[in-house]
Design goal:
Length: 268
């Protein structure tokens, strides 16, 4: 079996911290699994469909839509204050700090980046956020879209290169960028943020042995108090992990349906 943190492996330093943490969890849970690399542009949908998935981050939008549903083990609790000790996140809508876009009104008619349509933070959450504005403005907000860019890093690169004027950035990934690459992060400005929603969880394949799943969850819940994990927790801006029901991610489908009903069926 395998474990993977591709969704939040922002750069080599962050990836190494996740590897340390996940290897500890696997050993603590006494599960025969290996932490693997799975860099873009390899498709996350292919990773999530594997029957040997023991513990991997999965976006909440496909999680809610996948049948049979993967087993939700636990969700991260980021340490920055805006999350208030809860397993939540949002989408920061970012533009170049020197690009002349400071408000949403400045963004209309510009080029909007996205990761993939099956991403909550990189497409569906912004789509729901923009839906009322789209309805008020006759259904079209942007001159065009730029993507799929696959990852938060792809969005950052496109915005800073001038290939897109603004884009959606997973807020936890954004916080990690601010910590580990502050000079790069300083070149971005946040013009708005979507409401907080359940953060992507660590999941196992639907057929994962229930006893192994229970041990993995227990190990993840112990991460917060493990003294030996203090360094990777600090590098990952991670308070710990929390239990979260799979049903919590149904709200992502509700948000997408609401955007549809408002007539904003795609970022445009």
């Amino acid at each position: 079996m395998f474990a993977n943190a591709r969704m939040y492996s922002l750069n080599p330093a962050v990836s190494a911290a996740w590897r340390t943490l996940l290897e500890w969890v696997i050993a603590r849970a006494d599960v025969d699994a290996t932490v693997i690399d799975y860099p873009a542009p390899q498709a996350l949908a292919t990773l999530w469909a594997r029957t040997d998935m023991a513990c991997a981050f999965m976006c909440g939008y496909p999680l809610a839509r996948t049948k049979p549903q993967p087993l939700v083990l636990a969700a991260p609790v980021p340490s920055p204050a805006r999350y208030a000790g809860r397993p939540v996140y949002c989408t920061d809508l970012v533009a170049r700090a020197d690009g002349g876009i400071a408000t949403l009104a400045d963004a209309w008619g510009k080029r909007m980046a996205f990761t993939t349509p099956d991403s909550m933070s990189g497409y569906q959450a912004p789509r729901r956020f923009f839906a009322p504005f789209g309805a008020a403005r006759g259904g079209k907000l942007f001159a065009g879209t730029v993507g799929p860019l696959l990852t938060p890093r792809g969005v950052v690169d496109a915005v800073l290169a001038g290939e897109a004027d603004l884009g959606p950035l997973d807020s936890y990934a954004h916080d990690l960028l601010r910590l580990h690459e502050p000079q790069l992060a300083a070149r971005l400005t946040v013009i708005a943020s979507t409401p907080l929603t359940p953060i992507p969880a660590l999941v196992g394949a639907p057929g994962l042995d229930p006893a192994a799943a229970q041990r993995l969850t227990a190990a993840l819940l112990e991460v917060q108090a493990a003294a030996e994990l203090a360094p990777p927790r600090a590098r990952l801006l991670l308070h710990g992990f929390a239990r979260i029901p799979a049903s919590a991610y149904h709200a992502n489908m509700v948000a997408a349906d609401q955007a549809d009903r408002l007539g904003y069926v795609q970022l445009a």
